[in-house]
Amino acid sequence: MNRKIAIVTGGNSGLGFATAKNFCEQGIITYIIGRSKEKTAQAICELGENARALICDLNDLKAIPKLVEAIKEEAGRIDILVNNAGINMKKDFLEVTDEEFGNILHTNVSSVFSISREVVKVMKEQGGGSIVNISSMAAQYGIPKVIAYTASKTAIEGMTRSMAVDLAQYGIRVNCIAPGFIETPMSAKALNDDPERKSRVMARTPMKKLGCPEDVANAVNYLVQEGSKYTTGVILPIDGGNSIGF
């Protein structure tokens, strides 16, 4: 009954999977929210007995209250929420349609707001909790061809600060991780297919290497544990110095 309960959105791959793995290894019961039943089932199989699967498309905002209520009824509480799920699109500014721009903001911002609001209702009732949002280097400086993604992640950082101020009175801390260039299959392929971009990434990263998903997971873990109990509203870059590199 004393075990912590966590939710990780988009926890079936990449940074979300690494975060869920970190939690599960500590004995935290971790609910993985994913859209793909097959991919999520495979993740649960790899994560072991502390992982729980929930299949839901968070774009369906009306489904979110029932989703959170189901977790509360089954687990009894929610201690941690990691808002990791998100989508990107690489496209020239002039070619981005209103629909495409809106779709990315809906997934990356509106769904984060909706699930956070519902989870906060539970956390307020139980007297506290911790939320970690996932941003990006795109919110730290200008990156070409990702206007919608940049707008969404900049919104996430602003939401983090506002949430932290609003929710501190309930014992709820809200922080944010801004990952730099992390070596995942998707990012590795993107950089390897664009040698000029990869060269620029390395040139402005003082540590001269890509990060790994575990670097982000370890930072998330710090922000949800007692060691950071006096930390809220922080945007923490995990980027090998990329955001301050010259």
Summary, kept brief:
The protein is an alpha/beta fold.
Q: Helices and strands: which structural class? A: alpha/beta
Q: Kindly give the count of domains.
A: 1
Q: What is the molecular shape?
A: globular
Largest sheet geometry: 7 strands, parallel
pLDDT < 50 runs, ≥5 residues: none
Q: Give the N-terminus to C-terminus distance in angstroms.
A: 50 Å
- By DSSP, the count of extended strands is 7
Proper CATH architecture:
3-Layer(aba) Sandwich
Under CATH, the topology can be stated as: Rossmann fold
**Strand fraction band?**
15-25%
Secondary structure tally, helices? 8
Strand order in space, largest sheet? 3-2-1-4-5-6-7
Average pLDDT number = 95
Protein name: 3-oxoacyl-ACP reductase
Family: Belongs to the short-chain dehydrogenases/reductases (SDR) family.
Pfam families: adh_short_C2 (PF13561)
Report what the structure shows.
- It comes from Marivirga lumbricoides.
- With 246 residues, the chain is of the alpha/beta class.
- Helix 4 (98-126) packs parallel to helix 5.
- It has a single domain, classed as Rossmann fold (3-Layer(aba) Sandwich), CATH 3.40.50.720.
- The protein is built from eight helices and seven strands.
- The model has no long low-confidence stretch (mean pLDDT 95).
Sum up the structure in keywords.
about 45% helix, Rossmann fold, NAD(P)-bd_dom_sf, SDR_fam, 3-oxoacyl-ACP reductase, globular, 7 strands, Sc_DH/Rdtase_CS, about 250 residues, 7-stranded parallel beta sheet, alpha/beta
Question: Helices and strands in order, then pairings?
Answer:
Layout: E1 5-9, H1 14-25, E2 29-34, H2 37-47, E3 51-55, H3 64-75, E4 80-83, H4 98-126, E5 129-134, H5 147-167, E6 172-179, H6 185-192, H7 195-203, H8 213-224, E7 235-238
Parallel strand pairs: 1-2, 1-4, 2-3, 4-5, 5-6, 6-7
Helix pairs in contact: 1-8, 3-4, 4-5
